[in-house]
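@channel sequence for tomorrow's demo:
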Amino acid sequence: MDVAVIADELTAVGWRLAGAQVSIASPADVDERFRQAWQRAEVVMITAQLAARVSAPQLQAALEAYPPLTLVIPDLRHSEEPPDLEAQARRALGVLP
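structure tokens (generated this afternoon):
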């Protein structure tokens, strides 16, 4: 399976060891790196910190589309967490935690 991860340097180390194709992005080039990964990989993961810098329409379209599966993940330092989808779903359904 072709897995692409867009992350900071520290987070990238672990994913590289796991065999993912890693792209270390800066806020200036994250849109382009995200688009490139999305066009070639079966699974695209991007840290929450960098995902916040991807243009909102581009990120939303990627999260809604399949393939590839697109996931927002925490970075190694947990400096910014991805949205809690379980909690959002529970709230939308009116189910108490």
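heads up for whoever presents: The longest helix spans residues 30-40.
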